[in-house]
Every structure is written in structure tokens, then in C-alpha cells.
Specification:
single chain; 399 residues; alpha/beta; Beta Polymerase, domain 2; 2 domains; five-stranded parallel β-sheet; five-stranded mixed β-sheet
Length: 399
Amino acid sequence: MLQIGLTGGIGAGKSTVSRRLVELGAVLVDADLIAREVVAGGSEGLARIAEAFGPEVVGPDGEMDRARVASIVFGDDDRLAVLNAITHPLIARRQAELVAAAGPEAVVVHDAALLVEMGNANRFPLVVVVHTDAEVRVRRLVASRGMTEEDARARIAKQSSDAERLAVADAVLDNDGSEEELRARVDRLWHERLVPFEENVRLGRAVVGGAPVLVEPEPGWADRGARLAARVARAAGERSLGVEHVGSTAVPGLPAEDVTDLQLAVAALDDAEAIAEPLRALGLILRPGIDRDRPKPTDPDPEHWRKRCFAGADPEQRVHLHVRVHGSPGWRSALLLRDWLRADEGAREEYLEVTRAAAAECAGDPDAARYVERTEPWFDAVLPGAERWAATTGWSPRY
């Protein structure tokens, strides 16, 4: 099963996307529909709301008087907290029921207009954002929903900004054109990404290997690293002692393979096995047999360099997660070398020469391990210099 988040601002076309995904075979979990369902006439939710706020919140038709409830909780954080304490668990329970009924091979789409506002984006291995220029959205809301321009702009302003939504997006569906163009984009997303992603997760198949290809640095690498790190931290829960974006894509301005390397710090490596299932739900697959960094010349004890490795199952977003014990030499060196490369232009240029030579030598070779074998000795050689830089600058890991 693959669960994804779907969001977009009012008037962006999110409903069109969710309908098309259902036509293609997705299971839809609509947060707005569920929120209405759990407080419908005769429901447990409405009975509890009436008990908390008085029988007058139930209208003559037996349904909740939404305007009256809104007037009670508006501007009163305590009363709003009471309402949320009633509705949120009921919504979560109903969502869980729908997911459980979806089946092990399903792609479950969580349609949530307030995904960003509720802080739920990092629950999902993939978030799809339907993006439409604000002026286009205003025109659509006026034409299709009968709003005034002033009302349309006010509603847009109350939601998260486009920048906030795009910051959580793994896939963006632009909808400034026709409905047919949007549906075609949804079809490509479904067939080329969602279906293979679900199959990879279900079969425990990571997306790894391939001939190394260095690309120019992208501005979005840092945001992607932060987004993925937040997901790992949430999945690991109390076992996480910190998640960091490491590796070449964590060094601004450095051409690199388009791979996001993350490091999760834990108290003991057994924690990696304990969180393997939550990480798999995020599309991160444990890779047996990759259980250590290559021992460094300065520390011949291989136990100091043990780790666990996970790799992503998303066919369009390569991710490597290295789980290391907090305070171990391997954990420390990953952070030190990243920060040293960020600070030292000469070191970056030297490393780029090494990676370009290794990529040229391994061109066409599907075994990614050979590329690592060509670049790893450079790190061994420069680690003492990085340590001197740390001593001179007072560098230390920040967590």
C-alpha cells in the first residue's frame, strides 16, 4: 500500500485531480467529507458536541447548526480545543477504517485542503500539490462558484501561501491550462510514479544503482532534504536523536548525483530494525548486507563504523538513509565532512575533480558501488585535514 497526500489552494483544481485518481484506481480519503460525516445528524460526534455546547447547536432538521457552533468557538481557544478534542479523534478513526479497508495493493489518496495548515505533510511518503496561479484561481472562483472577487481573494488569503504548499511538494501538478491538460498530467503521475512506487514499497524493492551522472546543483535540493528529514524524524519518533541532510547534495553549489543522503542518529543500531516498518511506509526500504562504512585508517576497529542503510522506493526521487549511532566516528565524520566542504572552496573544487573522474571512469557501469569505491579513499585522505579545520574553528556537531 502507498498512502499519498493531495492538497491545493481553493480553486486550484484539487477535486478534478482526486476524481481522476479515483477513476484510475486510487482509494480516496477525503478529509472534508469525513469531517462532515462524523458530525452528521444522529452521529456520535454531533451528540457529544450537543452535550458540550448545548442542544441549540442541533437545528430543526437534526443536523449540526454550523453557524451557531462557529459563533461559539470563534475567538475562544478553549472552546475550540473542546470541539477539536471531539472531532479530531473521530476523523482519525474514520480515516484509519477507510485505509484498512483499501487493501494491501492500494494507492490511497488523502485529499486534504489544510494539509499544510494542520502540519500533516510529513505523514506521507509523497505529497502532490495542485498549483494554479492566484489570479487564475480568482477568475475561476468568480465564474464557477459565484463568488465576488473580494470574497475569492479573501478566501485565498486565509489559506497557506503558494510558497508554503510548494515547500512540501514532491510532485506539482500545474493547472493554469485546460482540464484535459490537467487530467493528462494526473495520468502520467499515476502510471509513471504512483503505481511503480506502490509496487516497490509492497515488494520491498529500493531504487538504487545505475551509472553515476553528475548534474548541476539545484536550488530545491536543500528543501527536499529538509522535507525528507522531517518525515524520517516523525516516523522514527523517540528513537530519533536527530536527522540531517548529508552528502553531496547538502553542499550548496556542488555538482553531484541527484541523490538525497540523510543521516538518522540513534542510540543503538537495533533501533533501525525497530523502525523498519514505519520507514517502509514512507517508502524507505532496509537494505540487508550494507551494515558498515569502510573502516578508516585512523580507526581500524570496524565496529566503530557500523550502520544500517535504507534506500527509497520512489522511482523519481532517489534517497539514501544512513542510520548510525549518535556519537560514533561514522556519524561524526558525515557531519564534519559536509560542513567542511560547505566552508572550504578549495576542498569543494578538489572533491569535484575526484567525483568527475570517478563518474567518467564508471560511466555506463550499473554497479553504483564502484563509484563509491573510487571516491571513498579521498575522504580517508582528507579527514585529518577536516579535523584540523574543526579544531581551528571550534566546530562540533550541533546535536
